[in-house]
Amino acid sequence: MTVATKIKKGNIIVLDGELFKVLKLTHITPGKGNAVVQADLRGVKSHVKTNKRFRSSEDIETAEIKTQKMQYLYSENDTYFFMDQENYEQYELGRELIDDAIHYIIPDNIYDVAIYDDAPIGLELPPRVTIKVAETDPSQKGVQGKTKPAKSESGLVVKVPLFIQEGESIVVNTETGEYIERA
Questions:
Q1: CATH number, domain at 56?
Q2: In terms of domains, do 83 and 54 share one?
Q3: Which residues contact 37 (CB under 8 A, 6 or more apart)?
């Protein structure tokens, strides 16, 4: 059990026996009355979005999630295939389970896959990933403080400094989707 104020975006919680992923959290402290936590949730199996309010002192059951290192193999339509590094078993994850991580996964790389009751329920990304710039405007030298859009191989569009060129690798923050540095 966890207090509502300790829950973070990306956590998996149990409500009425069903798993929900926390998409967004807002702490509301009105002038009068008790503080509450407004949460946008998505059912892990049903994929239905819902809103829920919790009292700030309310205990919420968090799911016991294991993570396993798995290699991303390939995607077919909206299904993504991962292989367990220990027993070479293959697992399928639907696009809805991967969410925004879709732009950060690259074939043959190793990722942490969240497992609940021996079934994959999502992907846990590192805080920073290195991606390759596939498309951007020509670089400009001598101009500082300005940015331009750059499209990665996976389709993610990131604002980068003007000196970044096509084919270069950059480091991106997976939580905000922002450029950090050259790789």
A1: 2.30.30.30
A2: no
A3: 4, 5, 7, 25, 26, 27, 28, 53, 54, 55, 56
pLDDT at 48: 86
Contact 23, 9 (CB under 8 A): yes
Strand 36-43, strand 119-124: pairing: unpaired
**Closest of 64, 61, 56 to residue 15, by C-alpha:** 61
Return d(Cα 143, Cα 133) in angstroms, integer.
20
Give mean pLDDT, residues 44-68.
88
Q: What is the mean pLDDT of residues 101-130?
A: 87
Whether residue 67 contacts residue 114, with contact meaning beta carbons closer than 8 Å, is answered with yes
In this structure, are residues 147 and 158 in contact, taking their beta carbons and an 8 Å threshold? no
Give the range of the structural domain holding residue 14, as residue numbers without chain letter: 2-62
**Residue 91: CATH number of its domain:** 2.40.50.140
Domain total of the chain = 3
Q: Is 70 in the same domain as 98? A: yes
CB contact burial 69-105 (16+ within 10 A = b; e otherwise): ebbbeeeeeeebbbebeeeeeebebeeebbeebebbb
* Average pLDDT of span 109-117: 88
In a shared domain, residues 72 and 40: no
* Mean pLDDT of the residues in the chain: 88
